[in-house]
Amino acid sequence: MLLNGIPYITACKIDLRMLFSHFSSSSSSSSSSSSSSFPVNVVVFGDMGTWGTSIISDNGKDSPVPKVLKKVQDLISSTRVDLITHVGDLAYADGMGKIWERFFWRIEGVANQVPYHPVIGNHEYGHVSSPSPNDPSNVPGGQSYNPPWGNYGDESSGECAVPVYQRFNMPNSTGSNSVFWYSHHLGNVHFTYISTEHDLSPGSTQYQWLDSDLAAVDSSAQPWKVVVGHRPIYNSQTNWTSETKVGKALQQRLEPLFLKHKVSVYFAGHYHSYQRSCPVAGNKCAGTEMKPHGTVHFTVGTAGAKFSSSPYDETVGWSRKTLLLNYGYLAFQTVSSTTMKLAFTDIDGVQKDSVTLGRFLELEPTTVPIPTTTVPTPATNLPTHATEPTYKTDFPTKGHEGGGGGGGSSGMCS
Prior knowledge:
- By secondary structure, the chain is an alpha/beta fold.
- It has helices spanning 8-14, 16-30, 64-78, 97-111, 122-125, 162-167, 205-215, 241-260, and strands spanning 2-3, 6-7, 41-45, 83-86, 116-118, 182-186, 189-193, 224-228, 265-268, 274-277, 280-281, 284-285, 296-300, 319-323, 328-334, 339-346, 351-358.
- The strands form four sheets. It has a seven-stranded mixed β-sheet with strand order 6-7-8-9-13-10-14, with helices on one face. Strands 5-4-3-15-16-17 form a six-stranded mixed β-sheet.
- The longest helix is centred in the middle third of the chain and has 20 residues, at 241-260.
């Protein structure tokens, strides 16, 4: 295959930035359409890796990753797909350049046809023990986010998102921050991408940008508001005490904005499983799927990483569907300005979940506070590109799944 006259594998070996700057420049222009005259078709998945069950395996024969991508490729071949959204934890590369190359080789078949938009996950960014001026997100002092209630760690093994930052050129909007937080219109949908690995507290730079971004949407042109992040704020898998604590803290910060601005859907991953909520506000169902008074939350960490096998708490009232051991993807279509259809399909081509949603139009009385915040001044200190790192060439000896903790620095942040 040739891309802009460059053989793909050669482009990878020379400079992956060359390859993905081409993808992303076309992605940015094609996914910024403001026309609301056509339905939008989008694929969502996350937490992929390269081989699935082991980062050090070169076998890959039984890996779910190519099976998930093959099903997405089949969908692209049979219908129009406008966008692929990867909800974080892309390659689990741990600073290994050849694993990033393998990841891009894996997704080539779909990413050379459809814009491919990621969000930052903990395995791309986490570097709490290594403050660095090379952090391309331009955080004060180069210090990765590490609140006292969090379980944020060093899961990127020193990458601090430099490889993702170098390879994906995301759409620019007022106050956006490269691949870390950004937004765009696509047909009748406004997409907002956030970093749950950065501060989202009221008054923080990202929080103010999110509030401003959602407030600026013209609902007559983009009636659907969709937010994408890595960590969910509603997930009922048990035996994950630290993750539950983080989710509740993020819920306190994000849900008021989602309700204030009537965000219809929030997509996340992090848990390697699938879950769908009812339209929810304050931990309770609010309205119905066709007449929602809250946001519907999806966890779609089903693209290939080892399953999060912890069981679900089936007593929570807001959960509508759970899938513990199913790899696959979620596809959605905005049928009209008031109707959206979503379906999860597994690697055997079996539709495991589907739902039709109405648009979030009005609130019910709720105990969740709706804050008043000021619109921020557009950021003027956005980051310049960090230097492309010198990668390690050996495979790590540790596994790659899970949150919180270890891994040595590969030199990108140091």
